[in-house]
Amino acid sequence: MIVITGGAGMIGSIIAWHLNTKLQRDDVVIVDRITHENQWQNLVKRQYVQYLDKDQLMPWLEGRKDIEAIIHMGAISATTERDFNKLVEANIHYSLNLWTWCAKNNVSFFYASSAATYGAGEHGYDDASIKDLRPLNGYGYSKHFFDEWVLRQVAENKPVPSAWAGFKFFNVYGPNEYHKERMASVAFHSFNQFKETGAVKLFKSHKTGFEDGMQLRDFVYVKDAASAVVHFLSAALNSKRCTNGIYNIGTGKARAFKDLATNVMTSLGKTPNITYIDMPEDLQGKYQYFTEATVAKLRAAGYTQAFCSLEEGVQDYVQNYLMHDDAYC
Length: 329
Prior knowledge:
Elements: E1 2-5, H1 10-21, E2 28-32, E3 50-53, H2 57-61, E4 69-72, H3 84-105, E5 108-112, H4 138-155, E6 164-169, E7 171-173, H5 186-197, E8 200-203, E9 216-217, E10 219-221, H6 222-237, E11 245-249, E12 255-256, H7 257-267, E13 274-277, H8 296-300, H9 310-322
Parallel strand pairs: 1-2, 1-4, 2-3, 4-5, 5-6, 6-11, 7-10, 8-13
Antiparallel strand pairs: 9-12
Helix pairs in contact: 1-6, 3-4, 5-7, 7-9
């Protein structure tokens, strides 16, 4: 069996979709804690054998010998979370416990890190090294802490899972993100704003050298993000060489928020209409103006599939999901 924590989340539920449709695997255990009233709909189209609350997982794992891999996507993912104690418990201690269980039981372990670990990008976005990174918020630091801990286990020759990889996801957008509210992608918010008002609001720039709407991100479609994770899982399951390590998951090409919003509107067959608003105070000083994944390490690990362009990803998202009454994948 394959366990997916955060399996009712955006990336987790699309990983389950890949397992169901690409690998024909339905022996999947979904672990999460659903707090949004509609988030259960991320699971309706999935095939799986069990659903567990996140606090049930460790007792359920005790003594089990039928687990092939744990895909750990569960976390507090809000960059605005201010209670660091919550981040420590959910993003650090929980991850440590799962890693330790997998190492003890010879089980593969794949987990979500984040591009938020790179901070303002003063040291670039190269996954060849995580040295000297300074995240801009507690969420990013919690992910960076676990990355450092993992690499320390490896360097000190301590027990490790049979195969493992961490994934620094860049700006993921796509179906099944509807429960994320404020933390949902700009693509999702742009679609809803345009439907309601006939215009899309983007943040003004508060940094020299960046015009309004020209803040740059590496936008990666959720189906591509899930596909990359499944690549490493498949290598481990098929006794092929799984190249353990921490990897960027992004397209390798930064695009402007203006490009994203424009493509949402053109995918609707409409003329773009963008207005600019001040950035909220809680984001100022903690906002990344440029992210772009270095993906050479990912390619060297054997992942050769092309990523959707921004145009391709947005068009699929808008026309095959957001424009339909049933927008779930």
